[in-house]
Amino acid sequence: MELFGVMAGIAAASIWGGMYVVSKAVLNIIPPFTLLSLRLILGVFCLVLIIVVNKSWSLSKRQILQAFIVGFVGYGISLGFQFSGTKLSTASNAALVTSASPVFILLFGVWILKERVTRNRIIALLLASLGVVAVVDPRTLIFGGDEVIGNLILIGAALTWGLYSVLIKRLSQDGSVLELSMYAFLGGLPLSMTAAGFERDLIVWHAINSAVILGILYLGIISTALAMYLWNSALARLDAGIVSLLFFAQPIVGASLGAILLGEVLDIGFWLGGALISAGLLLAAREQQIR
Fold it and tell me: How far is CA 229 from CA 11, 218, 236, in A?
């Protein structure tokens, strides 16, 4: 079960690794909260379909309400910040700034779940953080104009995602991860759809084509329904401090996809960063004593 948790967390982070490039492209056509609403609606549809087929409704009204509130934090506030920040900033900035999420997950895990902060976890976090800086070359970052506001919003996204991750872990101890994920998606919709109502004039209708539709489907089905379920499954099985380190697979995958799909060159920074992040993940795996 621990091994499944680690693989689920890495898979989720890997899926999100390709999300920023897709998000940045689609956000040029569909404004942030409209895109977020579409993403959550697709996620709800996919998970409801699975739950109905498996006939696995089991949560109490209290658990449903708690999942809804946690989803408001994670999918309403955090993802809203993420999309808004990415639109104002750059894909490189977004990848680096939101990689602060593991730090917040670790801190909230200590505060809310009373998890231990061990030497190995701190070393693993430092190694992986240095790896992110190496992969996402700081020289490519932009810190002026709208990018400053975007980066501040992205910090808010990282902080609230850390809080969401710890809260959903606490809920998942006594409930179905699949159902909790679905109700959490619903929790994000009131805020995202309200904000989307003010964005109708910002949609570039004539630019919506098959590529944009495929991007929306990827963000809704793969990056939301599948990846969020995998991430929540990892949190249900592992300490939040361990899962936080799995998040660092994201920049490696993102840079790799950039090389494969966009022809970007992988320099020495990528390989050094990959080695540091891998060392951090291996140290985290050893900490969890996977067999």
Answer: 11, 15, 10
| pLDDT at residue 291, as a whole number | 41
Q: How many domains does the chain have?
A: 1
- Which DSSP state fits 175? S
Which residues span the domain enclosing 270? Answer: 2-288
Cβ neighbour number for residue 198 with a 10 Å cutoff = 11
pTM for the model stands at 0.82
Per-residue pLDDT, 95: 66
Task: Round to whole Å and give the CA distance between 201 and 68.
Answer: 29
d(CA 180, CA 59): 8
Q: How many residues does the chain have?
A: 291
**Residue appearing with tokens 């592992």:** 238
What contacts 24+ positions apart, CB below 8 Å, involve 108-112?
Answer: 108/162, 108/163, 108/165, 108/166, 108/240, 109/166, 109/169, 109/239, 109/240, 109/241, 109/244, 110/241, 112/166, 112/167, 112/170
pLDDT along the chain (291 residues), means of 10: 81 82 82 92 95 86 95 92 78 68 85 83 80 64 65 87 92 89 96 93 93 93 93 90 81 70 66 78 63 41
Rounded distance between C-alpha atoms, residue 182 and residue 10, angstroms: 21
